[in-house]
Amino acid sequence: MNQTVVQSWEKGVYEASLDRESNTVVVFVKGLNLRPHKVSDPTHFRCHFGFKNLNKDGSFLITTRAVSVAQEVVRCLLPQGVRNNTDRAKGVGVTVSHLSGNFRHPVRTILPSVARIDGKGKKKRGKYELCVCTMVWNQGSALREWVMYHAWLGVERWFIYDNNSDDDIEEVIQDLDSQGFNVTRQVWPWIKTQEAGFSHCALKARDECKWVGFFDVDEFFYFPNEFHHQLGQGGGLPGENSLRSVVANYSSSRSIAEIRTACHSFGPSGLRSHPKQGVTVGYTCRLQSPERHKSIVRPDLLHVSLLNVVHHFQLREGFRYVNMPEGSAVINHYKYQVWDTFKAKFFRRVATYVVDWQEDQNKGSKDRAPGLGTEAIEPPNWHLRFCEVWDTGLKDFLLSYFADPVTGLLPWDRSLL
């Protein structure tokens, strides 16, 4: 598929993943118009499996019932004939139907589909303690800083969902992977399907990872207390592997399945052009109060529906989340960057239930920058906005411990030489 061709449907089945543990298939569907952020009644839904053209009458061989439905994700039982040998399901075409109409005149509608079951997902012997999943569009230039920094914090595996990028992201990911950062790119061309993409990633990562963080490439974990300790014995840097240590402390918990961390939103900090040494050094002024949070979850303890609202997932019954104290950990969210970078957000938003900024709706949404209209026109004094507290903690730490003593370059700068 030519990745520059954007696939945008009102209705259609676009992906399907095998879940070997439960003998089910997880199907990703656009256009069901289900309630956001809620689990729906699965009794009106069916999955249909076949080897022929899925859009022609009489081509479906087997039908099974849905066991869970939420937003754009439908989970169905596998056909009886492949449950004992799930490898046989790989490549099988699948679609979804739903019942509408009324009691006297029910109508079952079968959706068009290009989905075939992905047979990957066999367990690896040992799991990584901490992985990260994100979805990007044309953010290749931001990946080196984000990956290298979080690798130092203990992240061992990255799943990058590429939502129709046409920059150099593929080359950047290949370069990072060649340097040993264990980064893979998942082509995800479907428009406004971030929640479904994260459900897909949670299922994919379950067989490889104990914990998976879901946060963006402009969000950086910061540990104020750990980072300001003196250098440890043996030459170790203060704060090294801090994030992995946090999740490892909860790995044996019988009740905690999600760790939430508050986000501080940084502004342009007086800059008019992108900071040469990266966002962690360039942006140093933020809003005083935190906005929202991001989560790290146990993928094996998520609700069967894989329901999420981007910032967090619904958990299995009996499990709960814990909030990280702000004094221990926060996320520096470099949200309001210089205008040339920030204006890209007007192109489209990736989340399913977030209105694109060019549409004259929900202007008061927290997703939008306050005061912006529907056109990518730079507001007056943009470079001075969203600045209430000067916060140079992460910048000072990186320049003290990571900058080359001769050139002043940071690791992500040196990687480009």
UniProtKB/TrEMBL annotation:
GO function terms (MF aspect): glycosyltransferase activity
Keyword Glycosyltransferase listed: yes
Keywords: Glycosyltransferase, Membrane, Transferase, Transmembrane, Transmembrane helix
Gene Ontology CC annotations of this record: cytoplasm; membrane
Organism superkingdom: Eukaryota
Entry EC no(s): 2.4.1.-
Family as reported in the entry's similarity comment: Belongs to the glycosyltransferase 92 family.
The protein's name: Glycosyltransferase family 92 protein
